[in-house]
């Protein structure tokens, strides 16, 4: 055999001996994702990114979806970056008054006693990123300089299609065309809910339809996957202890157990942040979950699930996100 042919044969043999790069079974994902979206009765956005070989697959990956409380994860990163910059300390007390309470879910407000209390910054991070506390999130965002600080951090990190623009106390009412609450006024949640019920259905429906395509407080699945990839690689924070603290918070959370986590095999772990909006006139604003999954064999991948404008009930919506996770695991080569 000529030397040139022997060399070519040797090269081919070596290539054949190398382990194949991992990739998604994209044909299977493309075939089955439509059925899950149909069952969810809404617009489903998904991004999967293998952290071993950085292979990406997405469904509606470049479309914009409302984040809801998913924003609390980049917010926590932005707060920790300011700790690293020396502007705050994790044990620094942050004063909270009843006037600071925000709309909807807030374990902090529920357990609040008296008129004012101090909380260490680390506890506010845990409440916001781990328990999805709206009061804690709004307070931290105000402390660091506002929503634009979080978006600027994302842009500086190369994430373009992920935007944090308003406080919870602002954007939740604005979804339905109602005025948000400023920091100079106490949030009147019963009054807000009464005004929401009093709106004519056609006005609520039209306002919600507009909010579902709003570029503010929204993200694409692919941008969210790149954000999580950088988090998994430890690129957002310089201090490994800060990265470990945040990862612990979002791994130990009990929120969203029936979404992505329910679709992973036993023994898996999930570091994640959920998001959920109101359902009015049979239409849900958003049911979301994004995270970093670690399988029992050590394989890790990013999974992003956004579900907007769904007409399915809450258990069906959550089951759809769990089904995406099952599909992802079965399609991971």
UniProtKB/TrEMBL annotation:
It comes from Bosea minatitlanensis. Residues 45-305 form the Beta-lactamase class A catalytic domain. InterPro entries: Beta-lactam/transpept-like, Beta-lactam_cat, Beta-lactam_class-A. One of its GO terms (molecular function) is beta-lactamase activity. Belongs to the class-A beta-lactamase family. SUPFAM superfamilies: beta-lactamase/transpeptidase-like. The keyword Signal applies. This is beta-lactamase. Coiled coil: none annotated. Residues 1-22 form the signal peptide.
């Amino acid at each position: 055999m000529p030397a040139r042919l022997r060399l070519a044969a040797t090269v081919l043999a070596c290539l054949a001996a190398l382990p194949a790069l991992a990739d998604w079974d994209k044909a299977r994902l493309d075939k089955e994702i439509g059925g899950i979206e149909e069952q969810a009765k809404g617009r489903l956005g998904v991004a999967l990114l293998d952290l071993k070989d950085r292979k990406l697959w997405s469904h509606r990956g470049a479309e914009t979806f409302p984040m809801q409380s998913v924003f609390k994860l980049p917010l926590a990163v932005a707060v920790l970056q300011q700790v690293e910059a020396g502007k705050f300390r994790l044990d620094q007390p942050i004063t909270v008054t009843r006037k600071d309470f925000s709309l909807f879910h807030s374990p902090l407000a529920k357990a609040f006693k008296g008129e004012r209390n101090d909380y260490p910054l680390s506890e506010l991070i845990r409440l916001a990123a781990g328990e999805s506390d709206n009061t804690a999130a709004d307070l931290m965002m105000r402390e660091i300089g506002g929503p634009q600080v979080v978006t600027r951090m994302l842009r500086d990190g190369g994430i373009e299609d992920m935007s944090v623009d308003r406080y919870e106390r602002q954007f939740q009412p604005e979804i339905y065309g109602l005025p948000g609450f400023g920091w100079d006024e106490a949030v009147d949640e019963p009054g807000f809910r009464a005004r929401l019920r009093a709106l004519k259905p056609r006005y609520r429906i039209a306002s919600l339809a507009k909010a579902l395509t709003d570029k503010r407080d929204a993200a694409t699945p692919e941008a969210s996957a790149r954000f999580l990839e950088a988090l998994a690689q430890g690129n957002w924070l310089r201090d490994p202890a800060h990265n470990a603290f945040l990862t612990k918070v979002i791994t130990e959370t009990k929120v969203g157990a029936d979404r992505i986590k329910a679709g992973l095999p036993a023994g898996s772990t999930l570091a994640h942040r959920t998001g959920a909006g109101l359902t009015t006139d049979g239409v849900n604003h958003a049911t979301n979950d994004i995270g970093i999954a670690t399988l029992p064999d050590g394989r890790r991948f990013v999974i992003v699930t956004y579900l907007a404008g769904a007409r399915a009930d809450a258990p069906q919506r959550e089951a759809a996100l769990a089904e995406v996770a099952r599909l992802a695991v079965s399609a991971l080569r």
